[in-house]
Design a protein that fits this description.
Blueprint (H helix, E strand, L loop, with lengths): L1 E8 L7 E7 L4 H11 L8 E5 L2 E5 L30 E6 L5 E11 L7 E7 L9 H13 L16 H9 L1 H8 L3 E9 L7 E7 L4 H11 L8 E5 L2 E2 L2 H4 L13 E6 L5 E12 L6 E7 L10 H9 L12 H13 L2 H5 L2
Antiparallel strand pairs: 1-2, 1-6, 2-7, 3-4, 3-5, 5-6, 8-9, 8-13, 9-14, 10-11, 10-12, 12-13
């Protein structure tokens, strides 16, 4: 069955609209992501679908505490499972932080299938603005109606609607996603800020490991105890909490790309991370240190400035040149990748 939808972005009922044809055999996750792409979103955040005021689907990564709604995350659901009829109304809430609401209405249905499973037929307005709150977008558009130069530092043109570009993005999304999720492992060069020559690690980690585990592996490899908070800085921006649970694939890393991992905002340890190599296929282990140099950090010593004093103090046992590869990998393995039962029964 083919279904024709009218779509608009909340706050822009007349300014940002889409007319879309969909075949009901389309995977429901793909349907939601195509809808987001039609509004020039990048599908990098969580989303949920509501049909006639009832929850119908939760996108990958959403936390579920009620077993009664776990079925709403079934990756095999298709549009047909929604039993849509003419006049039904859907709400797709995208990016719970920026809070974009995409309103979708069933305009008509047909027993025949369309030539394409999902196609934007017509539209108006650019769409949403990634990484900015929906309220800000409303303010920006309203301000520019009064003064075209308002918010000149933000790239956004409300009138920029490119039908061919949107459909091209949608048509190629699954191939792009398949390539993104292709099994691979990364070789990362990690060094401690202020001690780049003396304290460094080369780490191999699979692409399906989540970003939080990557951070924890780096901290453990540097002899940290994981007693404090950590974060990732990409360029000038920190990753949001919801992003930390995503696989490393989400970062779309390229060889030569750099990140910073920050640990313990009191001592403020900063680890510089550079992608040395990307290799097809998973590694021999999910994550391990290939080689390295130098002891690492000393918890609660005061940070980078005081670490040098600790190593030069004859009254303690810390040695900047000490590096035990086997011990570090054993710690990473036990702390991150082995069950409590396995460790407790050694």
């Amino acid at each position: 069955m083919g279904i024709s939808f009218s779509v608009y972005l909340d706050g822009f009922k007349k300014d940002i609209t889409r007319e879309i044809n969909v075949n009901d055999n389309l995977n429901l996750q793909t349907f939601c992501e195509y809808m987001i792409l039609s509004m020039n979103g990048e599908c990098k955040h969580l989303y949920q679908l509501i049909v006639n005021d009832e929850f119908a689907y939760l996108g990958p990564g959403c936390c579920v505490f009620d077993p009664d709604i776990e079925e709403m995350m079934d990756e095999d659901l298709i549009v047909k499972d929604l039993y849509l009829e003419e006049g039904d109304e859907l709400l797709l809430n995208y990016d719970f932080r920026s809070d974009y609401d995409i309103y979708i209405k069933v305009e008509s249905t047909t027993d025949d299938s369309f030539n394409k499973d999902f196609e934007v037929i017509n539209g108006k307005g650019y769409g949403l603005l990634e990484e900015y709150h929906s309220f800000f977008l409303e303010d920006l558009v309203d301000a520019r109606k009064r003064n075209p130069n308002a918010y000149s530092n933000v790239e956004y043109n409300l009138l920029d609607f490119d039908l061919d570009k949107i459909n091209y993005t949608i048509d190629n999304y699954l191939a792009y996603k398949e390539e993104l999720l292709r099994p691979k492992h990364y070789l990362l060069n990690v060094s401690l800020l202020g001690f780049e020559k003396e304290i460094k690690r080369k780490i191999s980690i699979d692409s399906d490991i989540d970003i939080s585990t990557l951070c924890e592996a780096i901290v453990l490899s540097m002899n940290g105890d994981l007693e404090y908070c950590y974060g990732v800085k990409r360029g000038k921006e920190y990753l949001e909490d919801e992003e930390m649970s995503k696989d490393i694939n989400y970062l779309e890393l390229k060889e030569g790309q750099r990140l910073k991992v920050i640990y313990d905002y009191g001592d403020n340890w900063v680890f510089n991370v550079r992608v040395s190599k990307i290799v097809d296929g998973y590694g021999s282990k999910k994550c391990y240190v290939v080689n390295g140099k130098g002891y690492g950090i000393v918890e609660d010593c005061g940070g980078e400035y005081y670490l040098d004093r600790v190593f030069n103090d004859d009254d303690n046992d810390y040695n900047i040149d000490e590096f035990d590869l086997d011990d570090i990998n054993s710690t990473i393995d036990k702390r991150l990748f082995r069950t409590f039962y396995e460790v407790s029964n050694e």
